[in-house]
Amino acid sequence: MESNSSLEKRSASVDDKVHDQSRPHLVAHDVDVAAELTAGSDFVLDPEEAARVRRKIDRHLMPLMCILYMMQFADKTTLGQSAVLGLLNGPHHYLTQAQFNWLGTVFYLFFLGFEWPQNLALQYLPVGKWMSINILVWSIALLCHTAAKTFGEFFACRAFLGICEGAITPGFMIVTSMFYTRQEQTARVGWWFLMNGAAIILLGLVAYGTLHIHSTVLEAWQWLMIITGIITFVVAILFWFFFPDSPATAWFLTPEERIIAVERIKVNQAGVENKHFKLEQFIECLQDPKTWLFFFFAAISNVTNSLSNQRQLIVAGFGFNSLQTTLLGCVDGVVEIIVIFCTVTSATHWKNGRAYSGVLAYAVAILGSILVNTLPSSHRVGLLFSYWIAITSIAPFVVMLAWVGSTTAGHTKRLTTNAIVMIGYAVGNAAGPQYWEKKYQPRNHVPWLILSVCWAVSALLLLATRAYLAWENARREREAPDARYDEVYVSETRADGSVVEKKVDKAFLDLTDIQNRDFRYVL
User: Which H helix or E strand runs over 491?
Assistant: First the structure.
């Protein structure tokens, strides 16, 4: 807030006739940034205007978020694509199968190590600008793969990719919760996450093209790194100039539209953001059972995410050659887009059905896994379709990401929860590559069994989370009304030195979902 406008405890210097000592006041850093725009106003939100502003936000946010998420997934899976482009079996192959698996783990170990610092940076720094810097470093690290010739050099490149990715998904989760209502968030998270499928298609087509580049200097996998690295570099520049930091400062919104944007999300009871770290919210996050339900779900469900790096080797193991495997990889992307779209649409329109939508997707994935393990090797088309059925396992994690943002309030708590969830994501992804050992190839019976078990446990965790949140909602319905935060004011000093008070809505007091007893968890 500006220096002449603050939330503060009663000051002796304020005129008693203007400033009522009986009214509760908070210090400046306790409230949400939206309070500056809305405090004291009797703004009535027009549904048509709210819908118009939402469409404007979609036009400016979604294209950039979708393009970036497509490129970040394409970039981190270039390693898996490179496995069939000469990195493992080419004339100058530089890695063994064990080293290749370790590079998948290294990425997530560094992601894990830097996830908390990345989330702290997202708390204190402008979200859009910080993500832009990470994307720029990311693109440079990807380009450096081209020159790598030893395991150590590849290790360093993958380490920087892991460090930088730690800002992207948490940043997107925060931005989505800043600009959209809880009802809208699941669909928007689904939109930018399904770009993983578009990335697979893009990567497959680019990789197919690199196989037709005849060069004595660079191999096909090196051309793949160069092309994707250049595209990501351009995206970093676009992000710096065009991606907003919050609805309160979005360059493409007029002052009135900014007020509409923050009034729209008042229904979330979660505010926009607060740039001050609050220790009590951090502690509350650690003590909240749902934080750890989300953590264990993220960890266990992402043990299976190693499929993204192994998919080319899996399909090749069914008996397809390099060219066929590369082209068939594009179908993976189409399947992923379809299953994510269907699952998030179900979760959005099925009343209180987020967990059920995820469980249904896991049931289909387990069926695919069982078929991959039981069909004979001679049925390579059946194996291929069974593998595609198993890709439905990606969708529940998308639903969970939106669920985290919809069930957590208080900016420090929300960032801390995001960090813990993404640490779980990193733990699972770091462990995942290690069970794809060469001795299990080509059918990988043991890895597929592990996938089935992890998906079954993840489905149970979704149901347990839903049961806990439903119990908590029922408990709050039985409580007496809590009026502690109904009358909180901001004091504004005018040019003549007088002080006037403006009421701050409870939704913009930066309260946590536990502090605000009017908060109800979406199911």
Answer: strand 488-493
Q: How many alpha carbons lie under 13 Å from residue 410 in its C-beta half-sphere?
A: 23
SS3 content of the chain, % helix, strand, coil (to 5): 70, 5, 25
Q: What is the DSSP letter of 412?
A: H
Edge to edge, the sheet with strand 488-493 lists 5-6, 488-493, 499-504
> Which tokens hold the place of 305?
């995410």
pLDDT tens series, the chain, 523 aa: 333 333 333 333 333 334 444 555 554 455 555 556 555 456 667 888 889 999 999 999 999 999 999 988 888 778 877 877 777 776 666 777 788 878 878 888 898 889 889 988 988 889 999 999 999 999 999 999 998 888 899 999 999 999 998 899 889 988 998 899 888 888 898 898 889 888 888 888 888 888 888 877 888 888 988 999 999 999 999 999 999 988 888 899 998 898 888 888 777 666 566 677 889 999 999 999 999 999 999 999 998 887 776 777 788 888 888 778 877 878 888 898 999 999 999 988 888 889 999 999 999 999 999 998 899 888 888 988 999 999 999 899 999 988 998 899 888 898 899 899 989 988 888 887 777 777 777 778 888 899 999 999 999 999 999 999 999 999 999 988 877 766 666 666 666 666 666 666 666 677 888 988 888 899 8
Residues 6 or more apart whose CB falls under 8 angstroms from that of 510 comprise 30, 31, 32, 271, 274, 278, 410, 411
* Contact by Cβ (8 Å): 126, 454: no
Using an 8 Å Cβ cutoff, are 274 and 281 in contact? no
Check residue 490 and report its DSSP letter.
E
Q: How far is CA 147 from CA 71, 94, 162, in A?
A: 21, 12, 19
What whole-number distance in Å separates Cα of residue 190 and Cα of residue 203? 20
List the structure tokens of 207: 């990789």
Task: Quickly list DSSP for 365-382.
Answer: HHHHHHHHHHS-TT-HHH
And the tokens for 310? 């192994």
| Residue whose C-alpha is closest to residue 104's, from 136, 80, 135, 132 | 80
Q: Name, in order, each residue with C-beta under 8 angstroms of 405's C-beta and a sequence gap of 6 or more.
A: 173, 174, 176, 177, 182, 185, 189, 414, 418
| Per-residue DSSP letter, 125 | S
Enclosing H/E stretch for 338: helix 322-349
- Whether the link from the prior residue into 481 is cis, omega within 30° of 0, is no
